[in-house]
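STRUCTURE:
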């Protein structure tokens, strides 16, 4: 069972000022103050298990961009109200922004403000100590002849940064600029992507050659009409690689949907998206597509995650996580009834070839029910994923997490583990990546001391089974076992009727009966099976199974 606190051994090595709390009715404050109106929050992983958060808050009538770095123990490393990244004039509408981490552990944030009198893109790079590496005013990225909105960032393998954004042309275009490590724009003028109708919502994803793939949408004449997804690959100098942009899927996406492509580890991208249900066009469905480094696809449409025509299905958070090439991808899905008055959590796993691994229908982790959970984000674990959900009426929302294995089955009992039981409204719920067995969940919260709060989930590096591990002495080894209990393999000399000890040790206590204290049991494993109490034997003494 996962525990929502930092293990004692880690805590003992950390400062006495550690901020993670075991009280999920309190949580850890990233930024909290009476009347605080922090909004448009983003997070990204920092170095050494830390987490960067950024948000806008009102100061003297202006929206300022603040940032905080929390270390792995939950300590705020900068000022309590966060580092003031920018206090330049802002529009009353914040629009979309982006926050990413480069290979050196620096945070890169891009947004738009009105410092020039019109909306334009600006970007800052902040190091782990809170220094502005691109200067106190960041880097201005104007769009010649027009303005810019909604930037997205990719930190490239050669140390450069690709930043793409929407322009305010008619019809709208996409601008792309490369920024060097020191904050110098590398292109004399941003590259433009233009079509006969509006293109928008660009997301760059880095490739291993210093280049990137941009996934974007062709929207038509109105931004709420269904859009078609495209992708194009660029080299390190910003030139297109493919002869023409690739149509990601013949399935269109809703006008208000923002895909979140991720790298596939082989210079391509994966992305999950909402589209219409092929068997019930009035319902929404979930698909996943792969665009390989050469521009080829799984199929013209991508892979449908669930063949049920009787429920609505929607993506959530990061939309998916890539585990590895052997396990493939985990995809969280919100399932609802037709009227969307009930909700539940489904999960599907798909391999790197686009084949569903959990059957034609996604696994119902938490059944669809009134006031049921809504998935908010997903993070990979060592043997599956942990999915963060929220549920509750207005002003009474709670946050929980559900860990699933590669079969989509809950690891914990109960399946939902509380993360925040404070009765409040919560928004922008996001989870970090896995680091040192821990995932950090951060969100906006309008409780009495409003602002940004966080909670950690630990124990996620412990698998729901036993991995092959060689014992230090006596030739014992622990091996993978499909059952609930570990299997201990004995060396040949002990398979002939010797007495053996079965030890429950702290090193594996979280894998098997975590509530038990340290215990040592002995039993004669040649006596099969009655004499082995509390240890059970199988295969005529060749295996010793701990069942006590």
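SEQUENCE:
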């Amino acid at each position: 069972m996962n525990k929502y606190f930092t293990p004692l051994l880690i805590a003992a090595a950390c400062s006495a000022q550690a901020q993670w709390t075991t009280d999920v009715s309190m949580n850890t404050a990233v930024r909290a103050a009476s009347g605080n109106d922090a909004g448009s929050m983003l997070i990204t992983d920092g170095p050494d298990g830390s987490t960067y958060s950024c948000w806008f808050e009102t100061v003297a009538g202006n929206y300022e961009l603040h940032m905080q770095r929390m270390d792995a123990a939950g300590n705020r490393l900068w000022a309590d109200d966060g580092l003031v990244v920018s206090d330049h004039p802002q529009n009353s509408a914040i629009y979309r922004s982006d926050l990413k981490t480069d290979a050196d552990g620096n945070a890169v944030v891009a947004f738009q403000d009105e410092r020039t009198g019109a909306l334009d893109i600006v970007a800052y790079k902040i190091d782990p100590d809170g220094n502005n590496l691109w200067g106190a005013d960041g880097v201005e990225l104007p769009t010649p002849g027009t303005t810019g909105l909604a930037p997205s960032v990719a930190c490239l393998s050669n140390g450069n940064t690709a930043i793409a954004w929407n322009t305010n042309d008619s019809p709208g275009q996409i601008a792309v600029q490369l920024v060097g490590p020191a904050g110098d724009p590398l292109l004399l003028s941003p590259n433009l992507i233009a079509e006969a109708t509006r293109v928008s919502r660009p997301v760059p994803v880095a490739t291993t050659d210093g280049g990137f793939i941009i996934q974007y949408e062709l929207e038509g004449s109105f931004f709420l009409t269904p859009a078609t997804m495209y992708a194009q690959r660029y080299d390190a100098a910003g030139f297109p690689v493919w002869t023409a942009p690739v149509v990601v899927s013949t399935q269109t996406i809703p006008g208000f949907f923002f895909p979140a492509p991720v790298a596939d580890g082989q210079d391509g991208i994966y992305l999950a998206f909402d589209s219409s249900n092929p068997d019930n066009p009035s319902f929404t469905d979930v698909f996943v597509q792969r665009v390989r480094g050469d521009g080829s696809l799984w199929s013209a449409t991508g892979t449908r995650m669930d063949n049920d025509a009787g429920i609505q299905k929607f993506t959530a958070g990061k939309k998916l996580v890539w585990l590895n090439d052997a396990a493939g991808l985990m995809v969280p899905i919100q399932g609802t009834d037709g009227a969307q008055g009930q909700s539940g959590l489904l999960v599907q796993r798909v391999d790197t070839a686009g084949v569903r691994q959990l059957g034609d229908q996604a696994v119902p982790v938490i059944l669809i029910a009134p006031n049921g959970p809504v998935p908010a984000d997903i993070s990979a674990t060592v043997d599956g994923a942990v999915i963060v959900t929220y549920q509750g009426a207005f002003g009474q929302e709670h946050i929980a997490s559900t860990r699933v294995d590669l079969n989509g089955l809950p690891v914990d009992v109960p399946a939902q583990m509380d993360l925040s039981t404070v009765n409040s409204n919560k928004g922008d719920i996001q989870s970090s990546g896995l680091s040192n067995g821990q995932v950090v969940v951060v969100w906006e919260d309008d409780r009495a001391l409003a602002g940004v709060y966080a909670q950690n989930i630990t124990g996620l590096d412990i698998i729901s089974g036993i991995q092959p591990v060689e014992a230090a002495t006596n030739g014992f080894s622990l091996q993978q076992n499909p059952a609930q209990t570990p299997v201990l393999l004995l060396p040949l000399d002990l398979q002939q009727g010797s007495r053996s000890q079965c030890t429950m040790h702290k090193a594996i206590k979280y894998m098997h009966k975590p509530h038990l204290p340290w215990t040592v049991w002995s039993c004669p494993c040649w006596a099969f099976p009655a004499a082995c109490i509390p240890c059970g034997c199988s295969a005529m003494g060749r295996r010793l199974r701990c069942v006590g």
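REMARK: The chain has a mean pLDDT of 84.
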